[in-house]
Sequence to fold (137 residues):
Amino acid sequence: MAIKSRNKVEPTFNSSSMSDLVFLLLIFFMLTSTLVAPNAIKLMLPSSNSKTMAKQTVTVYVNEEYQYYVGETLANETQLTDLINAEIGNDTQATVVLRSDKTVPVQYIVNVIDAVNEINNATGNNHKVILATAPKK
Fold:
């Protein structure tokens, strides 16, 4: 006498739940990647119609509290030249992108330009300073 089982195990795999999971993960990572801010320091840049693009070597920030940041390193006015020179390294034609809040007085911008000019005079290189702007509305 043979006893038959009512529950049969089928060797097939249902992949519909796996595809749902993959799409949910894809949507999650797409949403979270758009929330990541590329700039660590939030600034309200001055607006301009020019569209000058350059390969940036060093980024210097001046925030609304008149603090200097070389990359993400906080610096004072006396440290600007040394920190920018360290970031430039051996590059002979580096571009320093200056991101300054639109409320910052011009003297703070001139301090950064003077620091880059001091590096140029000491090394004989031709580093440039570009002021970053936001597009006009």
